[in-house]
Amino acid sequence: MIDLHTHSTVSDGTETPTELVATARAAGVTVLALTDHDTTAGWDEAAAAYSPGMTLVRGAEFSTESPDGRGGTVTAHLLGYLFDPAAPEIVAEQERLRASRRDRLREMGERIAADHPIDADELLARLPPDSPAGRPHIGQALVAAGVVGSVTEAFEHLLRKDGPYYVEKYNTPIATAIALIDAAGGVAVFAHPFARKKGPIVEASVLADLAGRGLAGIEVDHPDHAADDRATLRDVAAAHGLLTTGSSDYHGTNKTTEIAAETTVREQYDALVARATGVEVLA
Ligand code: AMP
Ligand code: FE
Ligand code: FE
Ligand code: ZN
Fold first, then answer.
1. pLDDT tens digit string along 86-101?
2. How far is the CA of 250 from the centre of ligand 2 (A)?
3. pTM, whole model, 2 decimals?
4. E strand or H helix at 100, and its extent?
């Protein structure tokens, strides 16, 4: 069982990298990718926690902005696998993304605090100074304050993109992010391109265009993808030579999805690893 997209407490998951590796092992996952948002800070702990019999793929999920194919732009997530984490351009860009995440968390927190009993400063003070703070952290504060019953409910009512408190953060232009990952020997995969409930999505033509700019694959099987959208994505991938992956996007108890709820087939995984020159998989 190959799960190529998971989050730890280093970003907005609820299990430490060590706990995440244990959860994966217990669930029968044979290949696990750690892909925290805009950071590689969990790589070392995950590397120390994995044990033979399981393969660890080190990666990250980059916050990007993509053309939407309709003349505008949308926010998009880009998975980068097996890139050199010391590449100076990646280090600098991820720092910029994390700093913007914290500024934005404070701003959203202050807006929400006008109506609900949460404290934005306290929220940020509890996170590590270099943390890729995200909306789920506000969701947890809202749960703790008794405003909502779960992080998922917080998203439905208060944190959603078209909701009253939403503030945008800085996102890397996706072509730039692909180029950075590529230059660092990594492999770029467009995360959940058709996750409609997260907000506006790209047209299929955008994926085709990015295929010509170094994008290696698209995440087809994802909990937020409808069956007909998966079929469309598979067709796009076949037409443009893109790899297809499947992953749970596990966030522990911040989401309701189980680890390995969606998986990647072995041939696609092997092809992905064969493209990488940044760092090795750990097996
Ligand atoms: P942010 O990175 O701050 O924009 O927040 C987006 C993150 O929130 C995603 O990466 C998911 O981890 C999480 N998320 C998005 N929608 C939901 C939802 N409906 N329920 C729980 N978590 C969600
Ligand atoms: Fe997340
Ligand atoms: Fe994502
Ligand atoms: Zn994710």
1. 999 999 999 999 999 9
2. 8
3. 0.97
4. helix 88-113
